[in-house]
Automatic annotation (TrEMBL):
Domain CBS: 8-67, 75-132
Matching PROSITE patterns: CBS
Phylogenetic classification of the source organism: Bacteria, Bacillati, Actinomycetota, Actinomycetes, Kitasatosporales
UniProt-listed InterPro entries: CBS_dom, CBS_dom_sf, Diverse_CBS-Domain
SMART domains referenced in this protein's UniProt entry, alphabetically: CBS
Gene3D superfamilies (alphabetical): CBS-domain (3.10.580.10)
Listed name of the protein: CBS domain-containing protein
Top-level taxon in the UniProt lineage: Bacteria
Keyword Plastid: no
One of the Pfam families matching this protein, by short name: CBS
Keyword Aminoacyl-tRNA synthetase: no
Protein keywords: CBS domain
Amino acid sequence: MTTAKDIMHPGAHWITKSDTLQHAAQLMRQLNVGALPVGDETHDERLCGIITDRDIVVKCVAEGRDPAGCKASDVVEGTPRWIEADADIEDVLHEMESHRIRRLPVIENKRMVGMISEADLARHLPDNQLAEFAGHIYSPAPVKQ
């Protein structure tokens, strides 16, 4: 059985809710990543969400705000999703598809040990399974009535 830990990118560089978006962008550049987990500094790295390079651009820069003055807490929204390290790849796909997310933190013993991204899936999934995943993620969201 292929598990989340088998396909994840190991390591976890966090920022806190009080870190600036400028710091987040600099760290993303340094690590060559497009997203960082955001932790709550008062609760020993409790995952609060994920901030992406797109979040910084759309929710800060495009609104004319200064990334040096905006905090991660200003743009992080929603309920963070994650997966246990020993979860089967099918569970990983279900979590990402059902919530239409492109990055998924991997947790082991209540600590983040890595992240699964679309690139990780592309390296480990057969083409047909990857195409099905992309169809779920990139198809237009259903209209709620």
